[in-house]
Amino acid sequence: MSEFVRAFRRLRATPVFTAFAVASLALGLGVTTAAYSVIHTMLWQSVGIADEDTLVFVDRYPSTLSSVRDSMSVGDLADLERDQRSFAGLAAWAPVGGNLRHGAATEFVVMDAVNGGYFGTLGVRAARGRVIGPADADRGAAAVVVLQEQFWRRRLAADPAIVGRTVTIGDVPFTVIGIAPAGFRGLVEGGFGGADAWIPLAAAGRLSGPLVPAGLLSSDRDRRPLTVAARLRPATSIEAAGAELRVIGAGLDAAYPLHQRLSGGGTIGIPREWSARPAGDVLSGVTGPTSGLGLAMILLVALVLLVACTNLANLMLARGALRQVDVAVQRALGASRWHLVRTPFVEAVLIAIAGGAAALAVTRVLLTLATTDLPISAGRVIAFEPRLNVPVLAAAALALVLSLVVFGLWPAWRLATTASAPTGHDASPAGATRWRTGRSLISWQVAVSAGFFLMAALCVRALDASGGYRPGSDLEQLAVAQVQFDEAGMTTSSIAQEAAAVLGALERHRQTDKAAVMAGVPLGWPRRVPGVQVSAAAAGTPEASASKDLFVPLVAATDGVFDVVGVSLEAGRPFDERDGAGSDPVVVMSESAARAIFAAPDPRAVVGRPIVFGDVGPGGAIRAARPATVIGIVSDLDVDADDKPLLYVPLAQRPSGRMQVVAHAIGDPERAVAAVRASVRAAVPDALVTVAGSGLVVLAPAYAVFRHVPRIALALGALALVLAMVGLYGVLSQLVTARAREMGVRLALGATPRQIRRLVVREGFRPVIDGVVLGLIAGGLGRLLLIPLFSQPLSLVDPLVFVLAPLPLVVAALVACALPAWRAARVEPNVALRDL
Questions:
Q1: Which one of 64, 279, 513, 581 has the fewest beta carbons within 10 angstroms of its own beta carbon?
Q2: pTM for the whole thing?
């Protein structure tokens, strides 16, 4: 205990060193722990089921294929439950979507319609109330629903009295019987997404709508809406279960042959090639490429911790050099190596304890910042909430122990084995070795910083090359709702009027300044626009012989669409109230479309010309051809070069049951999203709002996540750079102190202060240049590995990136070298000569 007291006093006597050491370790360890928590939540977090090792998926095909969806009909499930002996239970489900109404609130929910053995097979118990059981699966049973904990907490305000109340899904009343445990989202392939609620299959059969699979309760064996998982009985192998599945499948093939309809007409017979696959291979992505990606991400972030530790090791070596005489005397008096190692190592232990405690606070702050709504697909969002848990804390403890070895035990051992009495200046082999060691560590730190800067630059260039996320409108300021008007039973003839009613209701909320309703949104990454086959001339016209058939994206929209998507009118006129359902068909095309279809040097010259467009028929022919007149030319969107041609037609002339309301927000886009939801409910109460959110989340979910990568890489690079430069400053300061007499002699012999400064800067820049070169080489190799991940072609050697990325390192190195160089140039020669 006395050794710890003495170590504490020594650290208290050097508060600047102690504060920096604790802060460096806290930042390095905190960033690493937070990153591991985020990656663990994304890739390796348990799906909340018991004994995952004994759970298998029943695949439609042999397990060498990836899909497990839609593997079984209701009739096959009943026969399998009756005949099988390998499983303790079967869990079957099918995805269902609909509007859930609770009081005045309406929420779109993605649900799993499940069999009575679903929760029992998975071993999942309710956090509140109860779960769906076999009695709820009877066709005459009351309609009940179990809510996901996150959905209940975030979208229903964690109403504690919700259990026992009635909510409406579609037009069917459901009684809420329970809340699922936190973390359980259903059996989710790939670890993302999941259900907001669970209802019995029998109750789901009472629902209707485009998001309710046909044949949920059908006796037709060709309808296979169910995905099936099973719990292996004790002492039953997965191979034996697979063999039994094949036998049962063959028997059902003989009794109830399955048929698949061909696109050209007719049917073919298909066998039930059922097989069993471990659930862990499907659910959380803990095997295969996803796991490798997670490990790679952890290793990258762990480099920051390693930089912090090597920086501390450098400073511990420099601190130990000040005790060189004391250590050498103790060695001469017979002190053991353990005694010499113990003193600095105890200091390192105290730094580790304080740094670990501070790292927990840093981790909590970073995890709070990382908690967000995470877009996982087109418009699908889940609450991403990384937390400190047992695996994360265990990883943090392991990282702390390894850090202590790097910055504590190794420098202490090195000092104990190399310490010698000084000889007037640090020209001893031990002193030279310490400088070479410090220089190598600085080179490593700079290389890591350069690698992170290059990674950030690569991501920025990749985003810039993709281009599809940068239309004329700012996606972050758009409010988007995907609406299924056909859910309300409307005909296409009334959809245009209902769309106008939605826009009118939206104007009254005053949360947006411009809006449009469109079928096919020409924004986002990638663009989501259905296409049509286009011919440049109507049949029988003089231009027909020169016509060119193309497949071009088409947007059907209300007036004002061009202001919303951010394009300008270049010639002609936009469509307006004159272009109704009974008017002559018209079309507005982008400049690229005019060039591609008419091969016109001047796109404005095609205004007034006829075209024919329609759906693609057999062989690429135009089906349901619609002749139309070009009435206007608009500018291209700032999107991918291969996807610029666009056609715009009035919504009244080409209505669709599934459309998007897109509005530009005034101020907070979330308030605009709420206004869009309210407007749809007010104008068309029965319409199904499947997705509502900001344009960035709904239209460009991949970019909404990927855009954070360069920011994270820059932050990690900046942190590593600060640590490296502080380490460089500390080592150079120690070097100047150790070589003060040498500097005085040089000045006495005629060296100028400028030459001394140049000498120190040159010594300091040598490891920086080595690190930059190493980092650029590693960055180039990293680009070679990462380029295949991007859809757009990227250059392996980007001169701009390779020139700009090292600039922060060079500037920071100049700053770090300036003060030690200035101190070296101010050494008094007389004092240095007198001390010789």
A1: 64
A2: 0.69
Residue 405 DSSP symbol: I
Pure H helices in 322-405:
324-332, 337-370, 390-404
Q: Please tell me the distance from the alpha carbon of residue 631 to that of residue 614, in angstroms, as a whole number.
A: 18
Q: Are 42 and 191 in contact (CB under 8 A)?
A: yes
User: Contact, 164 vs 176, CB < 8 A?
Assistant: yes
Report the alpha-carbon distance of residue 284 to residue 805 in Å, rounded. Answer: 36
* Residue pointed to by tokens 């016209």: 541
> CA-CA-CA-CA torsion for 538, 540, 546, 548, nearest 10 degrees?
40
Beta strands 610-616; 531-535: pairing state: antiparallel
SS3 619: helix
Tokens standing for residue 366: 């970073």
In the beta sheet, which residues pair with residue 552? 532
Report the helix count and the strand count for the chain, using DSSP H and E. Answer: 25, 25
* Amino acid identity at 206: R
| Owner of token pair 């490296």 | 724
CA distances from 101 to 108, 171, 397, 556 (A): 9, 9, 47, 30
Query: With contact defined as beta carbons under 8 Å apart, do 411 and 266 qualify?
Result: no
Structure tokens given for 230: 């099973």
Q: 112-126, 283-297, 569-583: which has the minimum mean pLDDT?
A: 283-297
Q: Which two tokens stand for residue 222?
A: 């060709």
Helix (H, G, I), strand (E, B) or coil at 59: strand
635: which DSSP letter? Answer: P
CB 734 within 8 A of CB 321: yes
Exposed / middle / buried, residue 768 (Cβ in 10 Å: 0-12, 13-18, 19+): buried
Cβ burial, residue 675 (10 Å; 0-12/13-18/19+):
buried
The pLDDT confidence band at residue 541, using thresholds 50, 70 and 90, is: very low
pLDDT surpasses 60 at 158 = yes
Least confident span in 333-337, 428-432, 759-763, 768-772: 428-432
Task: Write out the H or E segment, with its range, that includes residue 312.
Answer: helix 289-321
Determine the Cα–Cα distance for residues 605 and 592; give it in Å rounded to an integer. Answer: 13
How many whole angstroms separate alpha carbon 691 and alpha carbon 696? 13
**Nearest in space to 695 (alpha carbons), one of 397, 448, 456, 479:** 479
DSSP state of 187: S
What are the start-end ranges of the E strands in 221-378? 227-232, 258-261, 267-270, 275-278, 372-377
Please name the residue ranges forming H helices in 467-575: 492-509, 561-565
